[in-house]
Amino acid sequence: MSSSRICVAVRKRPCDADKDIVTAQSPQCIVNEPKVKYDLTPYTERHNFVFDEVLDEKVGNREVYNRCCRPLIDTLFSNGNATCFAYGQTGSGKTHTMLGHDAEPGLYACAAKDIFTRCKAQNQEVFASFYEIYGRKMFDLLNERAKLVAREDADKVINICGLSEHAVASVDELFNIINKGSAYRAAGMTSANAESSRSHAVLQMEVHEKGSSKTIGRISFIDLAGNERGADTFDCDRKTRMEGAEINKSLLALKECIRALGVGKAHVPFRGSVLTEVLRDSFLGNSRTTMIATISPTSAHCENTLNTLRYTQRVKDLSGGGQAAQVDPSAARVAAAKGGNAAPNNKKAQ
Ligand code: ADP
Ligand code: MG
């Protein structure tokens, strides 16, 4: 993991034999070259990006944790604010990375295991909260989806009023509540899969001295809403357009806040969205952030993948450090390639 306060990683998921069509005409469009590079070769063009960590389809959740997230735990235990985002289009592996499944626990579980071990040795305890940000509204996933509001107190600290906190002492206990909360996330929506990807889910763990309400540190995992530009590119109803606009706004605000954090700017534009407003502390003081951009391997998703990589590269560049990236900005040709109009000089992924 990068030694700076921000680690920017990209994770490619494996091909799904059932859903991803990979042929000579529709090749995998992503290959990774030496260590910190990703090449996107959508038939006609080659795009180079440089990140702190590049995680290919062979890298499991445990290794993602070790390479990108482990130092966040030190920040949490040194009175800090640690944050980990999963960013990418729907179906690219954000929830797989964060939540995982029994055979391959995700970052929530890997982090919780380390946190509980340290808490036990130091006589500390952990409180977990789990909520979602949907449009400009927030809902407590651990309290029957009760509506939440953010308020700034007299000390200029943003509090989420009414957010329930649950004492947890083991990974099993944490997962009991996460599983219940995830069901609420889906149940509150009409079509679970499609619509839960329109909200940001935040799992927060706070460490306290036993018996004290004073927080030692906090870690937040944010499974961001899908970044596909549904609102701009597809026929959709007003509600979906509004959702899309709000998601775009929050992702732009997030980029701006990370930029401010990276360059040590005095003014951080938190107020750009509910997401950045409630995460304000995560960008101030003793804080450390990891962003994991998840991408699909196939050319069918090429356009969204390119968007994801560009955004993430921008975060990387803005966050200070890092090498300059070579980016060919010709999205139009990529779009054309996606539509199959760029056949003559098709190049297979190399
Ligand atoms: P998202 O949350 O970004 O919409 P998911 O995490 O639900 O996407 O992933 C979509 C599908 O791909 C799921 O079936 C998931 O198990 C699978 N998947 C995603 N990433 C990986 C990975 N790195 N390894 C194995 N399977 C993955
Ligand atoms: Mg998901």
Automatic annotation (TrEMBL):
UniProt keyword annotations, A-Z: ATP-binding, Coiled coil, Microtubule, Motor protein, Nucleotide-binding
One GO term (biological process): microtubule depolymerization
Biased composition (Low complexity): 331-347
Alphabetized GO MF terms: ATP binding; microtubule binding; microtubule motor activity
Gene Ontology CC terms: microtubule
List of residues binding ATP: G88, Q89, T90, G91, S92, G93, K94, T95
Kinesin motor domain location: 5-318
Family: Belongs to the TRAFAC class myosin-kinesin ATPase superfamily. Kinesin family. KIN-13 subfamily.
Protein name per the record: Kinesin-like protein
Lineage: Eukaryota, Discoba, Euglenozoa, Kinetoplastea, Metakinetoplastina
